[in-house]
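Tip: read the tokens left to right.
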């Protein structure tokens, strides 16, 4: 991604080049995009608030991210407008924040916007006192009254708030909102029973679109955490498994899925998954790859294996960095021949473009197959989509034509790449690649997970072992938040299962220990920010799963996985306390916390551990394949020789040997283990026994 743009003074394209502002040398590509705005942007920090106090003006906080379409729109309309910029500079101290680098800042003020307006999103716009208390906020604002019907203009708001922001009565409204947000619900009186999982599953199924898949109306978001929850109950509830398959099927057929390059877009603007919002996020794709792998494990349908591998190939390709990490996102917008940005231009086609690329016969075939016509979906351009899965002759023909279209598309100006490496999202990606390596018997995917883990442990933590939130071009970003610790620890534990290498267990335990030291709440669970972080308006304790799972859900899953591996009952109690501490939301609105309910499901189902003792360091391929075939998402699988380093670190290996010199498996739940088996079919039978189902 280009670091900064240098449009001319006044409205973009007029006058002489501008001087850069303070964002020019920021680590965030999003901030650097705004380095040549006429707005005198500052970065978030005490200096900006000190200046606001000295000048007697509010802080104007603008939060977004580099691949956000409406952030680009607001920049062009307002932040490149000389009159708007002059008003911001005169009446406020303007501060830009990348929500991906500072999710803590974003979460606090997004809570305020949602509480006071009933909705949220990005760009987020909030006026603050010089002490950081919110005054007034919203999302996108046009530059002037009348620019968009029914919306107040930013210029009017700047001038109006300059007159009233210091009024104590006006400030009291923001203070009251902060008090309401800072109040945390009491922990549940007891750990909720398994019926809460089923209540949530039934609620999701009631909102399931039985025709187009997904949940609710347009716009539709993938929400892999929901699918993960339904997969956990799918063995006992066929309707849940059907809903997962229908949703994945319609998403993979529709325009949400990139049929040329692989990977899913951020969300669909319509109920049919036809026309996406074209940005592609690492966190969505990492989670969806894992979900497709779990669906493949549950159903044996090779389609989900194929989709997962396509997504992983996209992540390893355009998103992969040479040093081992993964970039965070690609933009929704790309440029035309004149240099103007258009949403989806890179990914869409006209019938004539397809024919020019493939010739009249093959072009007509692809236009028919993927619904490309003159009407199109966006300004006469069509999003590639299918009505039914390809098979037989159509599939074979498409496989020969796809590389030719890929080559043509590669000549177009590509959407910008946000190449910062975010720790939490890389943790999710490590999990996906490690799971693929283990479940698909694909060593190349395991090696990609190992490279990303090595990168994270080398570049994404400091000399004390504390994690950074992000890294870009050799420059670390802010300190890590809860999600970074929990997601990376889970990724390392998935890599442990894929490789049998004890180092990943040791590293995961070290990260979890730091997480408990600096983030834990005495009431159970964890705060988003560490105990030595900057003090914001309140210290948030995340409990809701959105596009990304909440840090408390991930943390509970780390504790449960470590409890199964180490046999430490205290870790299981910690997981239960974490779920109980934030379960009030799940009890009140079960659909708000599906990933947390995955942890609750595992708590009630009990630890399920498979220990495979090998006669040497050779992986027990046949027994691992049995686990992949019949295990579930919460089954922990460990393997290695009885005298190896992993066996020395895991108590469950004690006293076990490879019987008759053959790899030997013990299937355990809690403190009870079945008799050892050496045949894969025997292990499959144990894993599929109804008593092993959650």
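Filled-in amino acids:
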């Amino acid at each position: 991604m280009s670091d900064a743009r240098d449009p001319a003074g006044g409205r973009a394209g007029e006058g002489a080049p501008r001087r850069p502002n303070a964002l020019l040398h920021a680590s965030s590509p999003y901030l650097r995009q705004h380095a040549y705005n006429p707005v005198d942007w500052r970065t978030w920090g005490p200096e900006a608030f000190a200046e606001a106090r000295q000048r007697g003006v509010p802080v104007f906080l603008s939060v977004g991210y580099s691949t956000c379409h409406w952030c680009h729109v607001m920049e062009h309309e307002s932040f490149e407008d000389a009159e708007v910029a002059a008003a911001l500079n005169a009446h406020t101290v303007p501060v830009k924040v990348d929500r991906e680098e500072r999710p803590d800042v974003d979460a606090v003020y997004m809570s305020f916007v949602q509480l006071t307006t009933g909705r949220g999103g990005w760009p987020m716009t909030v006026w603050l006192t010089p002490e950081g208390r919110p005054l007034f906020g919203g999302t996108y604002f046009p530059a002037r009254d009348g620019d968009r019907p029914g919306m107040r203009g930013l210029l009017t708001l700047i001038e109006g708030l300059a007159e009233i922001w210091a009024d104590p009565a006006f400030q009291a409204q923001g203070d009251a909102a902060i008090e309401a947000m800072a109040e945390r619900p009491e922990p549940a009186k007891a750990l909720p029973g398994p019926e809460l999982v089923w209540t949530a599953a039934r609620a999701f199924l009631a909102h399931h679109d039985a025709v187009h898949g997904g949940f609710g109306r347009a716009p539709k978001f993938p929400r892999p955490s929901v699918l993960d929850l339904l997969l956990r109950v799918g063995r006992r509830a066929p309707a849940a498994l059907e809903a997962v398959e229908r949703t994945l099927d319609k998403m993979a057929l529709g325009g949400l899925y990139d049929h040329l390059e692989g990977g899913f877009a951020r969300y669909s603007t319509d109920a049919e998954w036809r026309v996406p919002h074209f940005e592609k996020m690492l966190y969505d794709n990492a989670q969806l790859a894992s979900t497709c792998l779990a669906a493949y494990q549950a159903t044996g349908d090779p389609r989900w294996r194929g989709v997962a591998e396509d997504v992983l190939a996209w992540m390893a390709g355009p998103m992969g960095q040479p040093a081992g990490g993964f970039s965070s996102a690609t933009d929704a917008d790309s440029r035309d021949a004149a240099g103007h940005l258009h949403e989806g231009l890179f990914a869409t086609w006209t019938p004539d473009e397809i024919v020019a690329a493939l010739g009249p016969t093959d072009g007509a075939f692809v236009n028919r197959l993927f619904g490309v016509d003159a009407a199109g979906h966006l300004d006469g351009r069509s999003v590639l989509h299918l009505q039914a899965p390809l098979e037989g002759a159509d599939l074979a023909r498409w496989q020969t034509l796809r590389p030719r279209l890929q080559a043509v598309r590669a000549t177009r100006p590509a959407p910008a790449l946000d190449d910062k490496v975010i720790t939490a999202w890389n943790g999710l990606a490590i999990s996906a690649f490690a799971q693929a390596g283990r479940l698909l018997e694909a060593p190349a995917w395991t090696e990609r997970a190992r490279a990303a883990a090595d990168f994270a442990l080398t570049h994404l933590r400091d000399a004390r072992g504390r994690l950074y939130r992000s890294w870009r071009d050799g420059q670390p970003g802010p300190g890590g938040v809860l999600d970074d610790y929990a997601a990376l620890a889970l990724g390392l534990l998935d890599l442990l299962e894929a490789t049998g290498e004890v180092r990943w267990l040791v590293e995961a335990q070290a990260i979890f220990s730091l997480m408990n030291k600096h983030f834990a709440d005495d009431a159970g669970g964890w705060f988003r920010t560490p105990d030595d972080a900057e003090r914001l308006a309140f210290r948030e304790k995340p409990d809701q799963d959105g596009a990304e799972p909440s840090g408390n859900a991930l943390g509970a899953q780390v504790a449960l996985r470590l409890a199964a591996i180490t046999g430490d009952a205290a870790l299981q109690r910690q997981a239960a306390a974490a779920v109980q501490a934030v379960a009030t939301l799940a009890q009140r609105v079960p659909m708000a916390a599906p990933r947390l309910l995955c942890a609750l499901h595992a708590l009630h189902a009990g630890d399920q551990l498979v220990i495979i003792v090998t006669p040497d360091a050779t992986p027990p391929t046949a027994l691992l394949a049995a686990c992949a075939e019949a295990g579930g998402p919460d089954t922990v699988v460990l393997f290695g020789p009885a005298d190896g380093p992993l066996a020395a670190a895991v108590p469950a290996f004690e006293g076990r040997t490879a019987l008759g010199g053959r790899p030997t498996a013990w299937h355990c739940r809690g403190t009870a283990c079945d008799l050892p088996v050496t045949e894969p079919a025997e292990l499959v039978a144990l894993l599929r026994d109804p008593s092993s189902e959650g």
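The first helix runs from residue 29 to 33. The chain has four domains: 29-182, 195-330+418-605, 347-411, 608-692.
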